[in-house]
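Researcher: Going back to the complex we discussed earlier. I've cleaned up the inputs and rechecked each line, so this should be the final set. Can you rerun the prediction on the complete assembly and write out the structure?
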Amino acid sequence: MYTSVSLSEQAERGSQAHHRGHFSFHSSSSLFHLISSLSTYEAHFLTLQLWNMSEKSNIAQLPLAALFGAGVAVLIDRFVIQRTSPSKRKSTPPHPHWKPSQAQPPPFKPKWHDIDSESLPSSVLYPLMITAVVPRPIALLSTTNSSGVGNLAPYSYFNVVAHDPPHVVIGCCTSNLRPHGKKDSLYNILDTGEFVVNIISEWFAEAANHCCGNFEYGENEMQLSGLTPLSSTKVQPPRVAESAVHLECRLVHTYEVKNSNRNDTTTTTTIVIGKVVMIHIAEDISARSPSGKIIVDSEKLLPISRLGGNTYGRTREMFDLPRPDRTATATGDGTGNTMIYTSSAT
Ligand SMILES: Cc1cc2nc3c(=O)[nH]c(=O)nc-3n(C[C@H](O)[C@H](O)[C@H](O)COP(=O)(O)O)c2cc1C
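Model: Rerun complete. Updated structure for the full complex:
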């Protein structure tokens, strides 16, 4: 599943990252972050290569010594710290000593762009909205048409909007690039009434992203990206084996978004509402709530989100804030967070 990466490729990645201003080779923490962005196999491979080089020359005199040190640190972090302390990514809230009614001033001046969205064209609204509402979760949507031909594509106009029974919502923008005017996922959902939401994790981000290519209808992105199909239980479209959470869904409703204020009756987006009829969670990524209910372990899921443009976000650092009216004393578990798992809480 992992590809081995040569030292020259690593160096190229490093220089690209340097060019983007994300890392500086002069700082050990940025080297750590650079190597952290590699898979465990790649980090292991790189560190071993550097160790082999040290046997042939005096690595202490090479700038690569710092890279080797960062590689060792990443491997210790992955194999020792992260495995022995599952809550390593939980950090303190931004203002741990904040008290109710205490001011929390924003870091910007009170001067606003007041934008009448009803007067703006799509080309202006799109970059604005996808940068304003962030981070968005991403559904990797698996669909098939009635002849069984598969399709896979990422959608970040996506969320869970009800849990009893669970419902999800997806926004499929109209595409003039498709012969039938609809994106392939929407075409298939309308054809069969079924789809599977696969949650994307860091470990297959690149393959999932590959599925957004404008491929011909009938070309299966599952094969093109190298992802692995896994049979679903109640619906025809397959799940993605690399994904740790799958939601098998049936279509319940569509709503066509039109720009009537511009006297335009064409559909710009079709909002799909689906009922989740089957849930699959990889056992290794699951956990138990304090009251023993099955949940997904956010720290193990490593979910990615969509920000603006081509930018994705990692979900690496979390913090807990108890609800003001639901204290640790009230729930009795000592964490103050138990109540989020009750049926009425959202
Ligand atoms: C992370 C990500 C999120 C996306 N979200 C959406 C979305 O919510 N709605 C949409 O219409 N297109 C979205 N796209 C673009 C589609 O994935 C792209 O148009 C794709 O070709 C659609 O594939 P399909 O025609 O096979 O359904 C997104 C692309 C990426 C990379």
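Model: Worth noting: The first strand starts at residue 136 and ends at 137.
Researcher: Good, that matches what I expected from the previous run.
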